[in-house]
User: Fold this.
Amino acid sequence: MIIDFVPLWTVILGTAVFFYVLLDGFDLGVGILYGFAKNRKNRTLIMNSIAPVWDGNETWLVLGSIGLLAAFPLAFAILIPALYFPILIMLLALIFRGVAFEFTYRDTEHATFWDHAFCIGSFIATFAQGVILGAFIQGFAVEGRKFIGTSFDCFTPFSLFTGFALIFGYALLGAGWLILKTEGELQQTTRQQGRWCFIAVLIAIVMVSFWTPLMDNDIAHRWFSWPNVAYLSIISVITIAIALFEWRSLNNHSEIAPFLGAIGLFLISYLGIAISLFPMIVPHHFTLWQAASSSDTQAFLIIGTLFLLPIILMYSAWSYWVFRGKVRADVGYH
Assistant:
């Protein structure tokens, strides 16, 4: 009897990608907002708010990448060359950002340079991830089991738009985190930044929601044919409800609600993409089952993964629990 492990691996990879987007997304967003801090005190507070957790957030990127290679090797073989340049740019930006993070405290004579480097690295890494997302949704030139396009095919008007949109999305997550972790003047400034980011994110959600079906007839049919349109209209209703919740929370004195609302917007957008593309893992070409490795390979890998995954979850939860509460300028990363 052959056991189908594809649904389980789909859940694992989907969870890893979402946790990466959420966790590294908010600290990249904090890095984006870092460049707008008014003074050294505020910059120190912003940096200290993510110092204990930021590097652990990238664990999910490693898990997702290795999981894709092991469980869906055909998809990995197509996606990597198709997205070579934005992936390379993202990784270089993350490295540059990490170096800047460390040297901000250790090379005080050039602190201003490293401040700008940290912010710019966050911007570039976020933009590259948005390009990857847009290119993935749009699809790739594939013949047989090979990518036949060029490394620049991923740069299209749609992918560039999603790149800029994700900057505002991560900045909204970062604003929610800073509202939760700071107080006083910095918190109020972040609320104002969060409101502007929210408006941009809302516009982006609307534009992508209409642009995506226009690019592919199958996606348009999935969302707008009867009776799908009746069933899936609940997604629009939930999105509007979350958007109203987020806007209200950014305009009152709630501290945790803006972060939860931003998470909700990312989650519902993530679900919308999944509905549009499922069961494709190489959009418009290969399904999850067609791109999967053998059942024996997936079974062997699942043992180690199911052992490792709870450890990652417990480590992450413990880190956030230990460093809960408000951040202070005199207590943090040194």
In short: The two ends are 56 Å apart (CA to CA). The chain has a mean pLDDT of 89. The first helix runs from residue 6 to 34.
